[in-house]
Design goal:
It is a single chain. The chain is globular, with a radius of gyration of 22 Å. The protein folds into 3 domains: 2-44 and 58-81 and 193-278 and 383-430, FAD/NAD(P)-binding domain, CATH 3.50.50.60; 99-181, Guanine Nucleotide Dissociation Inhibitor, domain 1, CATH 1.10.405.10; 281-374, Polyamine Oxidase, Chain A, domain 2 (Alpha-Beta Complex). By secondary structure, the chain is of the alpha/beta class. α1 runs parallel beside α2 (66-74), α1 runs parallel beside α8 and α3 runs antiparallel to α4 (114-129). It contains 13 helices and 19 strands. A hairpin with a 2-residue loop joins β3 (46-49) and β4 (52-55).
């Protein structure tokens, strides 16, 4: 068996893994990234199909937030093109959302009653400025204390499912407030050459720092001795390679990390937390082609639909993502519950019906390119908000990054990037390189 030495091994090349690799390789840590698929990015990548550049998960990239900060810091090209405005459809009408005060605007439009909306806003202000609600009851149950107005309640359903991936009946109330308080930019953008181009920009930086990226290589085992992660066995081509490393960072999700390192090496409390807390979030993801845009705006929230909560038309911002004269509509939908069992055939049907109801030309002009169900080992989110594990595992020198270990209140791409920054800073503190 061939043997090699590195300071850091990163297993998985999603946004969390690649941000960690870029930050550490820039700090002169000898780094190896291992990816089992032929291309980088995981749920933030691109598939070429019928001339379209289709995202494999996330579509919108936060502008000015932690993702952009890391790209700028390490010297990677950050190319997303700004989405001009977001809209929300309420009562069959579309409303442009201001960059500030979006929630107040939505509640006011939905209720049509200043007294009703002010009661909810006062409760929100208290939760943000004084004491956030308990996680022992849902956002929906918390709201029922202040309003019975179904239109207002649907606004919160739309926001919680579109932004956090979870129905307001299942979202812990406190976690919604932590989301509102977490630092984020109100602006988003679309990568004009597809998400994969952004991952390749990070890869270019990693390789320029004399680090290695191996694709089509499977991490088979993390070897642990005396409670410390010391080596990784990797299947490369037809051979196995044993990598000795000071640090192992897993971007495969906490569950798979445990399988790689062996359950016998984790304490019972951590395994119990993994078993009882981790709740993967399923998402229905439909991508539709058309000869003209099916929606007038790049992003539209649909709080009054059955399942679809958000639609994005990236070609209104980046026409390069489709063949000339074509457009792409991407919809995200949330099943009724994050908990199994799931009936995905029914869920896809409800999502398609939402699209037909909201976009009259869908039946005549739309061609569904891909209908995907993200769940299980390839979920929309590794776990629902408030159910994350820590970045550090009980095994010394073994970390997780990604959306299964996100900081409180964070979600999506920013949560993965922020977990990578937390881990990279800890590694730099604990393992000082000799100058």
């Amino acid at each position: 068996m061939r043997r090699e030495n590195y300071d850091v091994v990163v297993i998985g090349s999603g946004i969390g893994g690649m941000c960690a690799a870029a930050l550490l390789s820039q700090g002169s840590y000898k780094t190896l990234v291992v990816e089992r698929l032929p291309q980088l990015g995981g749920r933030f990548s691109t598939i070429e199909y019928k001339g379209f550049k289709l995202p494999t998960g996330a579509t919108v990239v936060e502008m000015g937030g932690v993702v952009e900060q890391i790209f700028r810091e390490v010297g990677a090209e950050f190319e997303p093109r700004l989405i001009p405005s977001a809209y929300c459809r309420i009562g069959g009408k579309d409303y442009e959302l201001p960059q500030k005060g979006q929630l107040r605007t939505l509640i006011s439009i939905a209720s049509g009653n200043e007294k009703k909306s002010e009661k909810v806003m006062n409760a929100l202000r208290r939760g943000l400025a004084w004491q956030e609600p308990s996680d022992r009851f849902s956002l929906h149950d918390w709201l029922l204390q202040y309003t019975q107005d179904e239109k207002i309640l649907r606004i919160f359903w739309g926001l919680s499912t579109a932004m956090l991936g979870v129905d307001d009946h299942e979202l812990p109330a406190g976690e919604f407030f932590r989301y509102l308080k977490a630092p984020r930019s109100p602006e988003g953008g679309i990568a004009p050459r597809g998400n994969l181009s952004m991952m390749e920009s990070l890869a270019k930086v990693v390789r320029a720092n004399n680090a290695q990226i191996w694709t089509c290589c499977q991490a088979k085992q993390i070897l642990v001795a005396d409670g410390v992660a010391r080596r990784v066995i990797i299947q490369k081509d037809k051979d196995e390679v044993e990598i000795t490393a000071k640090v192992v960072i897993s971007n495969t999700g906490p569950k798979d990390t445990v399988e790689l390192a062996g359950k016998e090496n984790f304490d019972k409390g951590y395994l119990k937390q993994l078993r009882e807390t981790l709740r993967p979030v399923p998402v229905i993801f439909i991508q539709t082609a058309s000869d003209r845009p099916l929606v007038e705006y790049p992003t539209l929230i649909l709080p009054q639909a059955r399942r679809v909560n958000l639609v994005i038309c990236p070609t209104l911002v980046c026409p390069e993502l489709a063949p000339r004269g074509k457009h792409l509509l991407i919809s995200y939908g949330t099943p009724k519950s994050v908990l199994p069992p799931y009936n995905f055939e029914k869920e896809i049907g409800l999502n398609i019906q939402d699209l037909k109801d909201n976009f009259p030309e869908f039946d005549r002009c739309g061609e569904i390119l891909m209908a995907s169900c993200f769940y299980g080992d390839w979920p929309g989110f590794r776990t629902m908000p408030g159910c994350d594990l820590p970045q550090k595992t009980p095994i010394e020198n073994l970390y997780n990054v990604g959306d299964g270990v996100k900081p409180p209140g964070w979600t999506g791409l920013p949560s993965c990037a922020q977990s990578a920054r937390i881990v990279a800073e800890d590694v730099k503190q604990r393992f000082k390189l000799r100058g």
